[in-house]
Amino acid sequence: MVSEETVRTVLGVAGNITAITLFLSTIPTFYRIWKKGSVEQYSPVPYLATFFNCGLWVLYGMPFVHPDSLLVVTTNGVGLVIEIGYLLIFLVCSDTRKRFQVAMMMLLEVFVIGGFVLFVLTVVHTTHKRSTIVGSISVAASILMYASPLSVMKLVITTKSVEYMPFLLSLFCLCNGLCWFVYALFPFDPFIAVPNGMGALFGILQLILYATFYKSTKRMLAARKEEPELGLAVVPIHNGDDAKA
Fold first, then answer.
1. pLDDT of the residue at 81
2. Which of 30, 73, 98, 145 has the fewest CB atoms within 10 Å around its CB?
3. Contact 53/144 with Cβ under 8 angstroms?
4. Which of 141, 137, 140, 107 lies closest to 124 in space, CA to CA?
5. Please, is 203 exposed, middle or buried when counting C-beta atoms within 10 Å of its C-beta (0-12, 13-18, 19+)?
6. Residues lower than pLDDT 50 in the chain
7. How high is the pLDDT of residue 52?
8. Of 126, 124, 50, which is closest to residue 85 (Cα–Cα)?
9. Beta bridge partners of residue 185, listed in sequence order
10. How far is CA 60 from the centre of its chain?
11. pTM beyond 0.85
12. How far is the C-alpha of 42 from the C-alpha of 237, rounded, in Å?
């Protein structure tokens, strides 16, 4: 019979794979941003929220906070590095105002995480209390991360276009949420189960929106592509009579 520890390890490895895939799923988006040299209407909120979330979960998985959580540390450590790369691209390709806002938010998040590290090391002296405090805060950060696409979902509903809501990000948001939710059941860890269960739900909602507005987005993009061609087609023609006149 398969032991609970084996099941947990397998689910943890699967969770690592889906989580890293989730972090990498927005590479096409940032390739487009880099190529155009502009962030256009893309929002930095999901990436700022993920950066903050990964930082807190790395802290949660440390042996001095929550022992035997190596998979949590490795996944979120990789995610933290990837999100830093995304945010640097966002900073380079933003206008001055947005660049300042993103930089200030990143700085604030770094100070907050650093403050938590000092707090748990100097004030809280047992791993049980540390994991409870950091876990509670991490749950809130995870819910914020998974809910961060809500602003994009609002844009999708308003414009009836999914152009600025990457499909792969929504798909792997669902897969990652499901994997870590099941992982948290062996044994039950509410700090991991609650936010990832909500993440799976938000992923489903995003995919429903994507399916709803996919065709209208295709029509809008096709119409936008035809506009320059139509403009080039309208060329004044002067015949010989016009020249004589």
1. 94
2. 98
3. yes
4. 137
5. buried
6. 232, 234-235, 237, 242-245
7. 93
8. 50
9. 188
10. 20
11. no
12. 42
Which tokens in the block code for residue 174? 């669902």
Amino acid in the structure at residue 18:
T
Three-state SS annotation for the chain: CCCHHHHHHHHHHHHHHHHHHHHHCCHHHHHHHHHHCCCCCCCCHHHHHHHHHHHHHHHHCCCCCCCCCHHHHHHHHHHHHHHHHHHHHHHHHCCHHHHHHHHHHHHHHHHHHHHHHHHHHHCCCCHHHHHHHHHHHHHHHHHHHHHCCHHHHHHHHHHCCCCCCCHHHHHHHHHHHHHHHHHCECCECHHHHHHHHHHHHHHHHHHHHHHHHHHHHHHHHHHHHHHHHHHHHCCCCCCHHHHHC
Whether 146 and 198 have beta carbons less than 8 Å apart is answered as yes
Q: Which of 185, 170, 191, 166 is nearest to 66 (CA)?
A: 191
Interatomic CA distance for residues 199 and 53, integer angstroms? 13
Measured at the CA of 66, the angle between CA 65 and CA 72, to 5 degrees, comes to 115
In angstroms, the CA 243 to CA 126 distance is 93
Residue with tokens 């502009």: 38
Backbone φ, ψ for residue 185 (5° rounding): -85, -10
According to the model, what pLDDT value does residue 238 have? 53
pLDDT value of position 187: 77
d(CA 236, CA 31): 39
In whole angstroms, give the CA distance from residue 193 to residue 92.
36
CA distance 171 to 175: 6
Residue type, 172: F
Please give the structure tokens belonging to residue 121: 């090391």
